[in-house]
Amino acid sequence: MQFYIDPGTGSMLFTILIGILGALRYLFKSWFVKLRFFFSGGRKTETNADEIPLVIFSDGKQYWTYLEPICRELDKRGFDVVYMTSDPNDPVLHNSYEHIEGRFIGEGNKAFAKLNFLKATVVFSTTPGLDVYQWKRSREVKCYVHIMHAAKDLTLYRMFGTDYYDVLLLAGDYQITQARQLEKLWNIPERECAIVGVPYLDEMLKRFEQNPLVEKNDNRVVLLAPSWGESGILNRYGGKIIDELLATGYDVIIRPHPQSFVSEKELLKSLMDKYPDSERLQWNRDNDNFEVLKKADILISDFSGVMFDFALVYDKPIIYTDTGFDKGPYDAWWLDEPLWIFEVLPAIGKELNTDNMHSLKDMIDDCLNNQKYSEGRDRARQETWAYQGEGAARTAEFLIKKYEEIKKSETVERGE
Fold first, then answer.
1. 85/107 same-domain check
2. Which domain range does residue 398 map to?
3. What is the mean pLDDT of residues 294-303?
4. 247, 313: one domain
5. CA separation for the pair 310, 322 (Å, rounded)
6. pLDDT digit string (tens) for 63-81?
7. CB atoms near residue 239 (< 10 Å)
């Protein structure tokens, strides 16, 4: 007979097990410290010798793009870091930085088990959900610091995503406002919030400035970059939107989300068979989207974060679709205020729906020629991209300062 345990129950059982093991560990540790004190003749013994100053945790290789600039800055300052990853293919495991040690700590619960008993001064991560599911706060970590990996609302994490972090590193005042609203709503202590910017956007901008577009397109290029899933453009509109794009007379590039080739194989095959590569249409599967974003004059997408990369870094207009976004699973559901992204989208582009799809060419032309969208992009940068070009340096400096602050406080408490 086989037994099935659903994910929720599995998480609960794992939490109970970790709690029991944690209690036993700290009981034995307490006894051990007392015995050492006794046998040392009452002299103080160093109990933090194996404490790691700074741990960076990542749950996927894709986050190296976001965290690598910060690691580079920490390495430049000679600050030793242990970068723990639960992805065996994470590039950090082969990094060349002298002060960044990459460690693979296992996948799934194996990784969480190590994190839950971690002994460190500061833990820094872009992963939400601390102390919500399997990843629990360790009693031997002094401070947990979270940084967002996208220019968007703090409330677009699934519920309680950042509630149990001590510090939030953010990119705009509106995110601090949202943090305070959630704290008041949940009746939790006020977290320390610091605005540092968006390191990964800084890196994209630097790369773009070093590799500018050399030649202007002979014909306008429209990039269709849908997300995957039922609310994605290709699922909702199918070949209709491709027909409308081809009818504009512009060159069209379609770049499906990589997950679409896994989860939506039949849909993509049918569309690629019906609309094969031609002089006017190209399907793009490059690992790196830099060149295709640089080439496009305008981007059409749904709820993909690439919209803000395209608008803010490449300074080009977008067209976005009404996806009927469901706030239910997210912190945003509990707040009455509209999401920042939905307030700013009309300022940087036009909304595409079934009623106006036949006017797609006019929409594209208006977005490309209307000055108000350029002004909207400037507004969006001001609101969600503070300290442009300084994000990684400011983040590294904050982490080092936080470590030093904690150690100084401990020294004062010991009366040394």
1. yes
2. 34-198+390-414
3. 92
4. yes
5. 19
6. 999 999 999 999 999 999 9
7. 13
